[in-house]
Amino acid sequence: MRTxxxxxxxxxxxxxxxxxxxxxxxxxxxxxxxxxxxLQLDWKFQFEFAGFIMAKEKGxxxxxxxxxxxxxxxAGFDTVEKVLSQENxxxxxxSSVIIHEGELQPIILLATYYQQSPLIFVTSKEIKTPKDLxxxxxxxxxxxxxxxxxALMLDHFFITKDNAELVEHSFNIEDFINHKTDAMSAFRxxxxxxxxxxxxEYNIIDPADYGFFMSAVNLFxxxxxxxxxxxxxxxxxxxxxxxWAYALKNPxxxxxxxxxxxxxxxxxxxxxxxxxxxKKMMLLDFFEVGAINTDLxxxxxxxxxxxxxxxxxxxLGTFLFDxxxxxxxxTVIFNEKQQLYLQKKKFINLCVDPxxxxxxxxxxxxxxxxxxxIISSLAKQLPIPIHLIPTQSWQESxxxxxxxxxxIFSMASITPERSRYMDFTTAYTTFPVVMATTTDKxxxxxxxxxxxxxxxx
Length: 457
Hints:
Elements: H1 2-33, E1 35-40, H2 50-57, H3 60-63, E2 66-71, H4 79-84, E3 90-93, E4 99-100, E5 103-104, E6 107-114, E7 119-123, E8 137-140, H5 144-147, H6 149-156, E9 165-168, H7 174-177, E10 183-187, H8 191-197, E11 203-205, E12 216-222, H9 223-228, H10 230-249, H11 251-262, H12 268-282, H13 294-307, H14 321-327, H15 336-345, E13 348-351, E14 355-356, E15 360-363, E16 366-368, H16 370-379, E17 386-388, H17 394-402, E18 408-409
Parallel strand pairs: 1-2, 1-3, 8-9, 8-10, 13-17, 13-18
Antiparallel strand pairs: 3-12, 4-5, 6-12, 7-10, 7-11, 14-15, 15-16
């Protein structure tokens, strides 16, 4: 027995280096197989980028075959230029519409995480409305004062460099506290915590309160990256969304990870405050994590056109990842979970409005109209067929949706009632509803201007 034991030990000692070498080779091979990509952030490490941090830390990127480098913002960096020049694969921007020197930048939008921008003006306590900013000193970055929702609001209230002093942002909160400026651009997630902590009185002017909405924490890439590496790009989107879902579900762990491994520039209390504001800005009751609100981008461009801040010749064009793939005849990419679902599903039941031309109708048992053409194009990208469920009325279609006899509507506007029994994608087409009047009437810029008038529809 003793001899066998010693022999066993010898064998183990002999095998140990071989086992170690094999393990190292496996690890090395796995690491070699990962695709290296980079994500350029547009600010310092904080909870604003929690989803990307946790996607890396929990191995979601690695599981997707990606070795992701998260790059913290440095002074003087042009995040958009770095992505468009392909120095970095992906980037983050505080708007889904990016403008440089009066021109829309050809970025491809991949995901939106803050459905409402936390960008606001913090003002001294006597300034309560945008009109009160006339004659005051306003501090903000060049882009914020020229192309953001703040700029749109200032333009709407005729606040310009001629009747107010617009100064470049110092990013020093003491300039506001010491009254060197009357108003400064700020993020709800950041500066408000510091002002509250110091007991400083202030007011908030939020562009969203005046109808000027934009998003933030927008994930984007270049057309080259999207077209040359569509599968990699889709994997990056899916893993990032997974990271965000984890971060929101596990905020304490996420805060500890950020503070211990990435940055101590913010305290744990400040990061905790940021979590609460982040959840509000993500509008999770209405949007899935990463969902893109196309209408918001289109609306922003229209507002910029109307204000004159963007030439009317500048249009968005193809700016969504899925639309870009369709435009260049790339097959729609489904992740593994989606593929398994579709294989099990076998076909998709479609309900439509049977009497809504020219948008759509059912004639001789066939779906016709604008929506029918779009659905037909979509069906070519799916691995399973779409089946029309004939109905006699829109109400019957709604009832079939509620009873799960149909899976999708071809066209439907989102309402609180419908959201109880259906999920909604971002809009794939829009049909503007306008208010018309005779040419001798003044332009209607605000619905409040005609609240006492008679309207017909």
